[in-house]
């Protein structure tokens, strides 16, 4: 570890006031936070943490990665152990911005540095079956599911759950990839064949006819303090998050229940840092957890201007062992993702805004991630639209040209 010659290093020495009796370290500003991954989540962590006085170094294979533009960067593959060792040497505390961290690298970093989040949570959330079992063990419901090892097992489980049902790879899927919605029994053979190519376990889930998709981000620090952000109502287009609407348009009891379930998962899984909990809400008020992400989440970007503490500041606070910030909502907000195809119209609008925002009294706050290539469907940025209510924010989003394409 570096930082042995400043106030931070002194605080890290065993037995000095910065060390808590329960072994949780307090890492104070001036220290360097190492981030495995240098994408937009790392960039926004570094921006929030830099404002507090922390330094950042990220490891990412892409030169001039989004986080590398606002922090130091080690350019190397994620599974390059030597590069990870270099990250450990330069950082006082290590975190990550994606969950598919190589197990060998995670173990090595734990050995050679301070990784308050540990590797157990990564192990759990890297695999859908392990994740579902952990959620259930925390006393929270998931959609009925079955592990699938053969086409016969798939047919039998599909008959039991009824159609449609969803076959998913246990690892490696994101934004709807690695999934097959089975709508007829004739598809089972082909679905099994296709997803088996991923060479990972498969899981079949009952299809939940949800009314809304919600997510809650919970934070927990090593001292065991837990805070939850207000639930977001998420709208996906072609399996990619399009909008997060906050407050979610559900009744107060559902909002409270969603936050309670997220806190229970943070506690049950011994989370340190953030855990994003994606949920399905059914018409009768039932909540099923779909999946977890042990990191800042796209559906929490709304917190950047709308909450007293952003998810990124909260994450840094948690991994550094500081008391957590107040997550309360200061303004209704709708977050809209900016994909590759939206960048052109967004830049045009920035240079010459239409009168709609002023007329509606909406304040659109633009965030762009500094990615070099605006590929179709690639997440390039987002806009947090603050307004007197979410209908007004939604009205601006549908009036502007940015999301017409
Ligand atoms: P996932 O990769 O698990 O987050 O799934 C991507 C999207 O597919 C979700 O946001 C849902 O819209 C849909 N989906 C996934 N699993 C189910 C399910 N069991 N029932 C209904 N819809 C689902």
Word description of this protein:
The structure is a single chain. With 405 residues, the chain is α+β, with helices and mostly antiparallel strands. It has three domains: 31-115, 3-Layer(aba) Sandwich (Rossmann fold), CATH 3.40.50.20; 144-206, Dna Ligase, domain 1; 210-399, 2-Layer Sandwich (D-amino Acid Aminotransferase, Chain A, domain 1). Helix content is 32%, strand content 25%. It contains 14 helices and 17 strands. It has helices at 7-12, 40-52, 81-90, 103-112, 120-125, 128-137, 151-161, 188-196, 252-268, 303-306, 311-319, 343-351, 356-360, 390-399, and strands at residues 32-36, 55-60, 72-75, 93-96, 145-148, 165-169, 179-182, 202-206, 210-220, 226-228, 232-237, 240-246, 273-282, 287-293, 333-339, 363-368, 379-386. The strands form three sheets. Strands 9, 10, 11, 12, 13, 14, 15, 16 and 17 form a nine-stranded antiparallel beta sheet that branches. The protein has a four-stranded parallel beta sheet with strand order 3-2-1-4, with helices on both faces. It has a four-stranded antiparallel beta sheet with strand order 5-8-6-7, covered by helices on one side. Helix 2 packs across helix 11, helix 3 (81-90) packs parallel to helix 4 (103-112) and helix 7 packs across helix 8 (188-196). The radius of gyration is 22 Å and the shape is globular. The structure holds adenosine monophosphate.
């Amino acid at each position: 570890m570096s930082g042995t010659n400043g106030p931070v290093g002194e605080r890290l020495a065993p037995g000095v006031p910065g060390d808590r009796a329960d072994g949780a370290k307090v890492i104070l500003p001036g220290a360097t936070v190492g981030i495995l991954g240098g994408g937009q989540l790392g960039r926004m962590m570094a921006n929030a943490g830099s404002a507090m006085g922390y330094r950042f170094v990220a490891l990412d294979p892409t030169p001039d990665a989004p986080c590398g533009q606002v922090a130091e960067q080690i350019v190397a593959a994620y599974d390059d152990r030597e590069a990870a060792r270099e990250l450990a040497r330069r950082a006082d505390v290590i975190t990550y911005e994606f969950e598919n961290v190589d197990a060998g690298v995670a173990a090595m970093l734990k050995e050679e540095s301070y990784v308050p989040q540990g590797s157990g949570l990564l192990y759990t959330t890297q695999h859908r079956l392990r994740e579902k079992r952990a959620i259930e063990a925390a006393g929270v419901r998931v959609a009925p599911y079955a592990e699938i090892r053969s086409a016969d097992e798939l047919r039998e489980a599909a008959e039991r759950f009824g159609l449609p049902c969803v076959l998913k790879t246990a690892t490696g899927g994101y934004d709807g990839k690695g999934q097959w919605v089975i709508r007829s029994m004739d598809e089972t053979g082909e679905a099994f064949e296709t997803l088996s190519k991923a060479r990972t376990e498969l899981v079949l889930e009952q299809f939940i006819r949800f009314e809304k998709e919600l997510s809650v981000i919970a934070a927990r620090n090593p001292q065991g303090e837990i805070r939850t952000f207000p639930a977001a109502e998420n709208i996906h287009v072609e399996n990619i998050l399009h909008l997060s609407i906050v407050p979610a348009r559900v009744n107060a009891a559902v909002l409270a229940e969603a936050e309670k379930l997220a806190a229970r998962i943070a506690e049950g899984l011994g989370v340190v840092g953030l855990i994003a909990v994606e949920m399905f809400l059914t018409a009768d008020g039932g909540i099923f957890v779909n999946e977890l992400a042990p990191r800042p989440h796209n559906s929490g970007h709304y917190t950047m201007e709308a909450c007293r503490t952003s998810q990124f500041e909260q994450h840094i606070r948690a991994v550094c062992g500081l008391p957590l910030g107040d997550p309360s909502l200061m303004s209704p907000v709708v977050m809209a993702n900016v994909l590759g195809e939206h960048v052109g119209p967004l830049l045009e609008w920035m240079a010459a805004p239409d009168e709609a925002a002023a007329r509606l009294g909406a304040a659109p706050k633009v965030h762009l991630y500094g990615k070099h290539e605006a590929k179709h469907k690639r997440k390039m940025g987002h806009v947090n639209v603050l307004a007197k209510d979410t209908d007004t924010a939604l009205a601006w989003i549908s009036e502007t040209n940015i999301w017409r394409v």
